[in-house]
């Protein structure tokens, strides 16, 4: 009989913000001998999709004062910024004042998270170790005895607990049959594929599908590489993200003991807050932000049909007011619109047809019954938002989870079906005590589980919960040839 391993083994798959910050918290909270395995497919730790952009004009869409990795140390990021260089060297983003009211570059934030991880390793007690593997997790199996992971480099790993922190997925193609276009180099399937964006000819007309935050990033990327052709951004309603302005603390009408039960009640409460805010000299943003501590509670009180109603009718308006852009970014977008280089259109894409000099797009305009317009463009960028419907995600790890019945998409297709602790719910409805999912993929029970202020609290709570779990009786892995490296 094989001996039980002496240490608790926890695998964290994905080392973007969520995986890295979870690892940092687990190093603080693990009170029994623990070996943490951080598995990341890219060479960089801490950055993930959001913070690996090479463009310094891609700014955080949350002010620096609210971007600490630690909920119990809100000024941690600010201290890090000031320790670097007085907070002044930020690719043009300017100085970070004592208030922290500034939007610094996302790339810089990625460097911060890497330091968070590095500091956590340095401060870890001797009974906790962290091993980093640069590899892609491609398969997972789990039963009463434990969990096995297979990595793309052919190695495998047996652990007691596995936590999926695999982040955001690129959008699926639009619901318009155009296989020839999607297979061509004129179609950029992922708006975060910087090399593909850089191949777009600088004078060609571009159609961006989507008018949200990712469209804004795409326009800035095209601009900064010298693009001079016209850009059209299209979405059903043509709504642009609102601009940040300084907010002041404001007390919401909402009371934890009297939660609204319908979307209509939420909207009535929010509108009343906005009206009251205006009457007392506050901006609508203060009222909107005052609701933030209650988002999860409000969502948990809405029945499935009400949640569906919210997604169908309110979501687009909610997104543009909730996730706002930095004033300096908004100013660039406004200037491009004013000089006619960027046009925002509301409508529904009807067809995409390959033509000799590009792709002809046909769009039915919103509101104007029957009005259809056509443009020939040299490139199409899909910036319609991250794919959250896990039944449509083709990644092998996701497929393995679903086909083995270890996970299931939630009914509203917002992510994976998980408990409030992030425990995966299997196809049969069983809650796992060894498989967890955190970050945006765990959105279903919360709705807002996208930005750092929510994610950092989730990581802190999950670390405490996971640290308390008992070890499984899984036999130790045969000596694994895992290509691992210690933290730099
Ligand atoms: C473009 C963009 C900009 C954003 N800007 C902000 C912002 O300014 N402020 C804010 O608060 N929030 C922002 N967000 C929200 C964002 O969701 C979170 O801030 C955060 O980055 C999510 O972290 P994550 O670790 O869950 O995902 P990610 O950061 O995407 O990390 C997931 C990691 O998992 C790895 N991975 C995936 N699958 C595997 C696998 N099978 N094997 C091994 N590794 C794997 C990936 O390589 C990646 O490094 C932004 C999101 C995006 C997409």
UniProtKB/TrEMBL annotation:
Organism the protein comes from: Azospirillum brasilense
UniProt xrefs under InterPro entries: FAD/NAD-bd_sf, HpyO/CreE_NAD-binding, L-asp_N-monooxygenase_NS-form
Pfam families listed in its UniProt record: NAD_binding_9
Superkingdom of the source species: Bacteria
SUPFAM superfamilies for the chain: FAD/NAD(P)-binding domain
Domain FAD-dependent urate hydroxylase HpyO/Asp monooxygenase CreE-like FAD/NAD(P)-binding: 11-168
Protein name per UniProt: FAD-dependent urate hydroxylase HpyO/Asp monooxygenase CreE-like FAD/NAD(P)-binding domain-containing protein
